[in-house]
Structures
1.
Amino acid sequence: MKKIIVILLILLTSMLFLVSYEKTKNHEKINDQKVEAFFEQVQKENINITIDEETYIGVLEIPKLNLKRGFYAYESEENTVEKNIELISKNCYPNENCPFILASHSGSSSIAFFKNLDQLTIEDKAVIHYLNESYEYKLTQIIHEPKTGTISILDTNKPQLILTTCNKKINTMQDIYIFIKI
């Protein structure tokens, strides 16, 4: 009887792992298709892409991490950390002189798009492809602070890219990666 229970538990665990793996692969496939559609639309129109609920308005690219993930307009129902990389501020975009802020999970789930940010080091590069332009940034600072629902931004009048995520080791802390536009 114990052997049967152990075998059933192993089978159940394997099935759950497989379902989680397939869900992650499906998210990645959909993202890749939307990223490709974003770049195709930008190339065709060479002005502005169509902004709707299903279309990325931009793509975050971090070459060191092989990360290329799209994000939605602030008003989109898809702009949530529970589904995607979330655009935090509706008042600042990469083509403006202010902090452009994105957030995502850093755990092991299928929506943990910032799970490898802790591998970044000062001077690493990131690119934001927004509408029909690309903006390159260099990592200048990594801050660890208590998770309070807000983040510390020292200078709000600089063209910056700020990525924020939960700290992997301490649940009550968050990590903030500050990039400056180059």
2.
Amino acid sequence: MLNQIVLVGRLANDPELYETESGKKMVQMVLAVPRAYKNSAGEYETDFIYCKLWQGIAQRTNEYCKKGDLVGIKGRVETYNYDTEHGRKYITEVIVDKITFLSTKK
């Protein structure tokens, strides 16, 4: 079985560096990835994909990237769910293993 994803897109927000209670560094970010085809109105839509980075790549991404930068990522899809007062909530995100800084927005 294989769970691998490769995406190229722009950061929809500035990366935010967090530290867990156990001392691990983590960045959460949203990657804006345009679709390769037009919708019925003749426009390209964009998917906004939640991504999580850990430790060294989290620190480097936080240092060198900002909103609008073009990056390539390789990672895996992870899902989880939890209960709220309004019912069960499902989360899908990409756990990033490798990131390539492609360009900055001018």
